Known about the structure:
The structure is a homodimer. By secondary structure, chain A is an alpha/beta fold. Chain A folds into 3 domains: 6-79; 103-367, Aspartate Aminotransferase, domain 2, CATH 3.40.640.10; 370-493, Aspartate Aminotransferase, domain 1 (Alpha-Beta Complex). Helices cover 43% and strands 12% of the residues of chain A. Chain A contains 16 helices and 11 strands. The longest helix of chain A has 26 residues, at 468-493. Chain A is globular, with a radius of gyration of 25 Å. Chains A, B: InterPro entries: Aromatic_deC, PyrdxlP-dep_de-COase, PyrdxlP-dep_Trfase, PyrdxlP-dep_Trfase_major, PyrdxlP-dep_Trfase_small, Pyridoxal-P_BS.
Amino acid sequence: MTDLNVYQDDSVTLPKADHVQLIEDLFHQFLLAQKATLSPQIVDIATKEDTAQMRDATIPKADGMPMDQVISDMVKIMSHRVAMEHPKFFGLIPSPINENSYLGNIITTMFNVGTGSWYQGSGPSTVEDTLIKWMAEQAGLPSSAGGVFVSGGTMANLTAVVTARDAMLQFDQRPKAVIYASKETHVSVTKGLTVAGFLRSQIHRVESDSDFRIDPQSLRRQIAIDRKNGLVPFLIAGSCGFTNTGGIDDLNALADIAQEENLWLHVDGAYGASVVLSKDHKGCADGLGRANSLSWDPHKWLFQIYDCGLVLVRDKRHLVQSFNTEASYIRDAEEVNTDTVNFWNRGIEMSRSARGLKLWFTLQRVGLEKMGEMIDHGIYLAEFAEQTFRELENWEILSTASLGMFNFRYIPPMENLDPSLDVEKCCDDINAAISRLAVERNIAAPMTTRLRKALNLRMCTISPELSREQLFEVIQSIDLIAKEVEASFLKEHVFKL
Amino acid sequence: MTDLNVYQDDSVTLPKADHVQLIEDLFHQFLLAQKATLSPQIVDIATKEDTAQMRDATIPKADGMPMDQVISDMVKIMSHRVAMEHPKFFGLIPSPINENSYLGNIITTMFNVGTGSWYQGSGPSTVEDTLIKWMAEQAGLPSSAGGVFVSGGTMANLTAVVTARDAMLQFDQRPKAVIYASKETHVSVTKGLTVAGFLRSQIHRVESDSDFRIDPQSLRRQIAIDRKNGLVPFLIAGSCGFTNTGGIDDLNALADIAQEENLWLHVDGAYGASVVLSKDHKGCADGLGRANSLSWDPHKWLFQIYDCGLVLVRDKRHLVQSFNTEASYIRDAEEVNTDTVNFWNRGIEMSRSARGLKLWFTLQRVGLEKMGEMIDHGIYLAEFAEQTFRELENWEILSTASLGMFNFRYIPPMENLDPSLDVEKCCDDINAAISRLAVERNIAAPMTTRLRKALNLRMCTISPELSREQLFEVIQSIDLIAKEVEASFLKEHVFKL
């Protein structure tokens, strides 16, 4: 056996100065120049040829490749993406990133601390624990609350439903357990429930009101019926920030029912919970603090890079009850009264990087005052955009602006159309075409969704980097595209007079 | 409503050049200088005072703080950690990190691509998918295999057991289902099973042989008894790399039984699966390719930073069956035959960063040949250390070197001791003291574990940066500490003649 001459071989350990220079140049370009110069397209989806090329480039070779080639390959690969942080990406829930999050994550990368246990990472564990308690307080939860940073909403929802299952149900009750959700409840709640061992059929969908919120009367009725049928209601899944419309369930009404019926109230606030840090709109989330558990993703609306999700539980001992990974239960139950925290006893993961530190970095640097303004900014932008569309011709508003999001569609006059046409279908096609053209021309990326069967456009305008003037220009461009689509549609389909 | 002057306010968006300079300096220091200059201690656990200070510094303020202060606070916080990448940290499973992993993760950070769906990140999705297929092939799995990058072994084991549950059991069989594991099976397998809805009592512990491996005869007997009692055996959890000793279950024997009995064989190779990329020791993992599912953490033994875990499943359609998150099942079943991949249909998470790209970066840069040597290096080091201890006086080897790990303890002559003493207890105390002193003096961090009740020292020597000469010096220092502890012990406890 001979030793590797590791310190003399730059491919194995420390890179040469000029290699570091390459990375530093890239880093500098990203932080100081427009990120757009590296990824000019808002939406850049790999073609079949791109894909084949990347597959070839992925298979590891026997020998190492030069650093500059690997870097340039990686930049090319990563550029096939949706620039979720782009101020004009309005689809999904965008990720408008504060630069401080990049910096915080790079320092996190450099230290590479395992934050599963106190032993491995007592520094970041302390900060995450304190930050979690502070966030719980902002959400209105009591001082008994605790939680853990996870990768995102799906993991947060899974962690919460497992905790609820273990706190509320005897083992033999599980097959008869019932969960209440609405059509607007995020698909990840269903996913969490199936991972936790429930069937989809155990999720009962409650009727919604005209704002898509769970109807309290229907919920009460359904609970009564289910109990009568020998089922075991145990969990209500409310939402603070529907992905489709930005709407919020009546959280106080849900909390009242949960209290009366002795059910667990989980609120999926992955998107919307951040509103509690706003200056002018905290009230939107009224009732949030009455939840038994809460999902909240800083990588959605607290301007963090992936991954940065959070699950909070009203009484942190319930987390220990479900996720304690030590042999001895007593020691860990005690732990919650001391300064130390082993996060692997509060959540699913054992290996975990210090996801919360980039948020800490951002909050320290930016300050609460400005964070609040940045959140409010997005809410005002959506209201401004809704108003602007209302004043333009042929645009219909399907859901009014809520939490920086609204839904709308273009409906051209259809009196002279070929009567054999399905008007609803035409409308759908026209709006799909508007979205597609806006993306293709890199003007903006509003995406489509369906509300009450109608395909419509949806804008989530939460970027603090987007000015009202820029948004106004985007809306004018979208209106022009709509006219263009309309003209081309009429040319094809108008009833010949 | 007034717009935020975001581009003029450096705390909100783009940092000033001198702020970037601060980060770049830190980055440079990390990559080119010894990382030890920032974290001189191998083990640095926060004191009560440190903790109180950090808690104070965590609460967000109304106004932002200067960049240099936030950076220096963060460096201080992160320094309270175990330097898991330090060549002389031998505890847990160390994380000796290849520098290329840092660089790959910094580029990943800069692009911040969501890799849950093809739409969001077609570039990194393609590379991760191709890399996963290649890794499956290296492990001996067939071309039907697929998987997903996760945060670590616990998530990999959870993903695998949910997949096994859904593939093997009817819903009403779940309460009678039985899982087979041994005492050496990692605690995260238990955790995954309880999250997936099983009780701890459904995990039957099988007897082990003298090398701590599951005894095939006992397993066969237990399956027969369980079937006779109306239970439903469905899963065998084998291990490739026991955390305690580096041992490996007889994977071929387990695969034979799984095949005969129609059970699912999951192998937790979070630590040890990487041996299939070694040059000289691939054979250790014989039978690995017969598993139905496999956990494999590149952040353990492929020199990656957190987080970088992987779960592989023999037939990737089973993943889609359990984790598909779309409304329409057909579309996603079809997907597995095309170029596109939506990873949120292959695993639990929807939000997910491109964890696999830093591994891709490392493999491209280093090349397979050298990666193989780096893995072999750790295996040879442990063999060398075992041999060295064998040649020193009063040291006992409790488990021979396997996968870069071995167990040993110091047993001084005890003839003249006070006869009222518990010799075993004395031995435990002596070895605990040796470990404690080595850590306190920052000589090295061998940690303690128990094998057949005896407390012993355990070294995992997988750092490619550690030379044989350095290891020899460490062993000599540990031997000196042992003599010191022995002398102080004898002084107190020797029987007065």
